[in-house]
Design a protein that fits this description.
Blueprint lengths: L7 E3 L3 E3 L6 E4 L2 E5 L6 E6 L7 E3 L2 E3 L1 H8 L4 E4 L15 E6 L6 E7 L2 E8 L4 E6 L3 H4 L7 E3 L5 E13 L5 E3 L14 E3 L5 E3 L7 E5 L6 E5 L2 E5 L1 E7 L5 E6 L20 E6 L4 E5 L12 E3 L4 E4 L11 E17 L9 E6 L9 E4 L10 E7 L4 E6 L6 E3 L4 E6 L3 E5 L3 E7 L19 E4 L7 E8 L5 E9 L4 E3 L2 E2 L4 E2 L5 E8 L2 E19 L2 E6 L12
Antiparallel strand pairs: 1-2, 3-4, 4-5, 6-7, 8-14, 9-12, 9-14, 10-11, 10-14, 13-24, 14-17, 15-16, 18-27, 19-20, 19-26, 21-24, 21-27, 22-23, 22-27, 25-26, 27-28, 29-34, 30-33, 30-35, 31-32, 31-34, 35-36, 37-43, 38-42, 38-43, 39-40, 39-43, 41-42, 43-44
Length: about 550
């Protein structure tokens, strides 16, 4: 064991002080390992005033290098507090930044040009930064749309970092909530009940071309009382120059209370102007004339579910902008599927159309109580013939913005003749019926996008939050790939029927992790707490491989 002597294991050399013929950093000074791996020799000291920082490749402009690499790692991000109106007020919105580099990252978070948080993140470390809610977005008036100037935060770092936003980060706090649900008063615990998280994408990979992913407005009747909550698409301005954003909606859209957003019908278009930091949050409309279809009843509990259908679902909505914008899709509180208890906040960064590929491989998450996932496939091109292996459904020919869903209880490869998105949903805690999971059980809906195989990477730095009861990863990799997690081989791949790909899933501890392979692979990260969950892609490249819409 090399660690017992304070050394490292260098492949082909055994225990050494350092990996032969490589470089590392001591602060901003490059340290070069000799050919035997027995000593480090100081090299040049980097001129940080000129924007240069130490790396294994010497003194480099690391932010410029990150831009050239076109991945999820970068130096500028735009967190936004998306709609989550049912959240208990005790819980905070947070961003978590991880530093994959060899020198400290100096991070500043601003809103409207004013710094609201600063942090120094050690190499290999992470920092959770709580940020105030923007109430006009978290809980907009009348659950409607909103156009909020300066509604987003701007996170900048002097060296590349990875950034995730958690809405909220914690799912449980000590002490009773100010507004405890009936039957939970005085138990000394406060639960959030509704959480999700997003992998944020850096500014340099953003474009002006997107297709939205959400779910239909949720419409519920309990003991004769009806309630609804909307899906949303949050468009964020990121360019110093104002950009024009054209939205072609697939759904009925609510107006904003101030009239800045007017109501929309399916197939209609509306234009907006966004400056850097402005947020346009479109909300699917709430029904005013009852359920247009039959209520699906769970009679024992006097609960009814209404399937409003695609006209109330923002999935497939097209976003075209004259400059780069960010897009987060999700839901205030969605049942997944529509008739399985209970609802949860959903959100995920939507990949630009230019970064979409024609193939994804998706593995279902490890079930808590035998439940599946739901897979939603959205076409980003007209006349796109999409097939699944194994054939969970027959071939589907879709036009741009059209989608279909399947129950995902086994891994599957999705192939199209053109680009596509695939959204993976965790399902409701009581998928088997109200009360089936027991009291304070883990789980509820979550949303992540599957990584195009064309955008797989050979290494990822990713985060698993320590605030959840349990976290897991799922790796999708080609047959024969050798993959290590934090320097340790992961379990053997289980091959996926009809493909040359395999998958493996395992639990992980909270913290920053490094996973590397001998071939490009994909990774999904997810976890559970009482009444809730989180899920997001562990990272990806975002090279421009498809035409914009």
């Amino acid at each position: 064991d090399c660690a017992e002597t304070g050394e490292i294991c260098a492949r082909g050399f055994g225990c050494r002080v350092c990996v032969p013929n490589t470089a590392t950093c001591a602060g901003e000074t490059v340290q070069v390992c000799n050919s035997e791996g027995t000593a480090l020799t100081p090299g040049e000291t980097c001129d940080t005033a000129s924007g240069l920082h130490c790396s294994p490749d010497g003194c480099r402009d690391l932010c410029a290098d990150a831009e050239d690499a076109a991945s999820y790692i970068g130096c500028e991000y735009w967190p936004v507090t998306t709609q989550n109106s049912q959240l208990q007020p005790e819980f905070a919105f947070s961003v978590v930044a991880a530093n994959p580099g060899l020198v400290p990252a100096e991070v500043v978070v601003e809103r409207g040009g004013t710094a609201v948080a600063r942090s120094t993140i050690a190499p290999g470390g992470l920092e959770a930064i709580e940020l105030p809610w923007v109430e006009e977005l978290r809980n907009p008036e009348a659950a409607g749309s909103a156009l909020v100037p300066g509604g987003a935060y701007r996170l900048r770092s002097n060296v590349p970092v990875t950034v995730y936003q958690f809405n909220p980060l914690q799912y449980r706090r000590a002490g009773d909530c100010a507004m405890e649900p009936e039957g939970m008063e005085g138990d000394g615990r406060c639960f959030s009940f509704t959480n999700d998280a997003s992998l944020l994408l850096p500014t340099h990979v953003l474009t002006g071309s997107y297709i939205g992913v959400s779910r239909a407005t949720h419409y519920l009747r309990v003991e004769g009382r009806e309630a609804a909550s909307p899906g949303f698409l949050a468009v964020v301005g990121v360019d110093e120059a104002p950009v024009t954003v054209e939205v072609r909606s697939r759904a009925f859209v609510s107006a904003s209370a101030d009239g800045a957003v007017t109501a929309m019908d399916p197939g209609t278009t509306q234009s907006f102007t966004l400056a850097a930091g402005d947020v346009l949050q479109l909300a699917s409309a709430l029904p005013t004339e009852g359920c247009p279809s039959e209520w699906v009843m769970e009679a024992e509990y006097d609960v009814g579910y209404c399937d409003l259908g695609d006209d109330w679902d923002l999935t497939g909505t097209e976003i075209r902008a004259s400059g780069p914008v960010a897009l987060i899709g999700g839901h205030d509180c969605a049942f997944v599927p529509f008739d399985r208890w209970a609802c949860d906040h959903l959100e995920e960064s939507i990949f630009p159309v230019e970064a979409l590929g024609a193939e994804v491989v998706v593995a279902n998450t490890a079930p808590l109580r035998g439940e599946p996932n739901i897979l939603r496939v959205v076409s980003a091109a007209d006349g796109n013939l999409i097939t699944l292996e194994p054939a969970l459904t027959g071939p589907q020919r879709l036009d741009r913005g059209d989608h279909f869903e399947v129950i995902l209880d086994q891994p599957v490869r999705v192939r199209g003749e053109g680009p596509l998105l695939a959204a993976q949903f965790l399902v409701g805690q009581d998928y088997a019926g109200i009360g089936s999971s027991g009291r304070q059980a883990n789980g509820d809906p979550g949303l992540a996008l599957a990584i195009p195989t064309e955008q797989f990477r050979q290494s990822y730095t990713f985060l698993a939050p320590s605030t959840y009861d349990r976290s897991h990863y799922v790796v999708i990799a080609p047959e024969g790939a050798v993959i290590t997690l934090d320097g340790v081989l992961i379990p053997a791949l289980e091959m996926i029927e009809g493909t040359s790909m395999g998958q493996v899933s395992d639990r992980i501890n909270g913290g920053v992790h490094r996973i590397e392979g001998t071939a490009p692979f994909g990774i999904l990260v997810y976890g559970y707490g009482s009444y809730t969950s989180y899920v997001y892609p562990g990272g990806l490249d975002l090279r421009r491989i498809s035409p914009p819409i």
